[in-house]
């Protein structure tokens, strides 16, 4: 994790969770493995439960996900907050993962995705995508989430590493009336990916 990503997640916490200090919140971090740092310290609060989830066991991983497109280990509507930084560029079919984010969020729940808009290839094990604000808004719409923020640090002012990655940030909320169509879409796409994925 680079410094600018940590600072952007801190800004998300300070802006969107500041008035929820007394609430019991379950925060799930997707792609949580500690690679040069983690977001765990940002959510270390007596009333909050932080759960690190990743595709492989390691430091800062509480739950190992067996499938990036079908998180059976995380029940539906089990999270108040879902965060993820520097993960979506490594997910081949990220739009299906976005549907999983929406599935595990409770109605009224909020997510924050931090992704690069630039920077060199960094395979982990693959490096597939870069994201701009329009793309982030499209991801949210596809998953049935309401956009609260979608922007890119075009000037690279986010601190060390910001000049190279030009972080993009999506903050979105799951509406209280979540459409059944998004659940059907998630199931159909999950089925399709199982047939596309190499054996």
From TrEMBL:
InterPro entries attached to this UniProt entry: Methyltransf_11 (IPR013216), SAM-dependent_MTases_sf (IPR029063)
Protein name: Methyltransferase domain protein
Recorded superkingdom: Bacteria
Gene Ontology molecular-function annotations: S-adenosylmethionine-dependent methyltransferase activity
Example of a GO biological process term: methylation
UniProt xrefs under CDD domains: AdoMet_MTases
Keywords: Methyltransferase, Transferase
Species in which this protein is naturally found: Tepidimonas thermarum
Pfam families (UniProt xref): Methyltransf_11
């Amino acid at each position: 994790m680079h410094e600018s990503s940590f600072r952007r997640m801190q800004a998300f916490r300070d802006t969107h969770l500041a008035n929820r200090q007394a609430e019991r919140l379950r925060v799930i971090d997707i792609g949580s493995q500690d690679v040069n740092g983690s977001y765990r310290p940002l959510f270390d609060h007596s009333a909050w439960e932080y759960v690190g989830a990743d595709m492989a066991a390691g430091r800062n991983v509480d739950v190992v996900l067996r499938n990036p497109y079908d998180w059976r280990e995380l029940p539906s509507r089990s999270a108040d907050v879902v965060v993820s930084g520097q993960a979506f560029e490594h997910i081949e079919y990220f739009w299906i993962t976005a549907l999983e984010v929406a599935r595990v969020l409770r109605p009224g729940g909020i997510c924050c995705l931090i992704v690069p808009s630039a920077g060199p290839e960094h395979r982990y094990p693959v490096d597939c995508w870069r994201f701009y604000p329009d793309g982030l808004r499209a991801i949210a719409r596809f998953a049935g989430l309401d956009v609260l923020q979608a922007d890119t640090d075009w000037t690279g002012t986010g601190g060390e590493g910001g000049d190279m990655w030009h972080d993009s940030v999506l903050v979105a909320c799951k509406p209280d009336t979540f459409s059944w169509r998004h659940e059907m879409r998630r199931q159909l796409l999950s089925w399709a990916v199982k047939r596309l994925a190499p054996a």
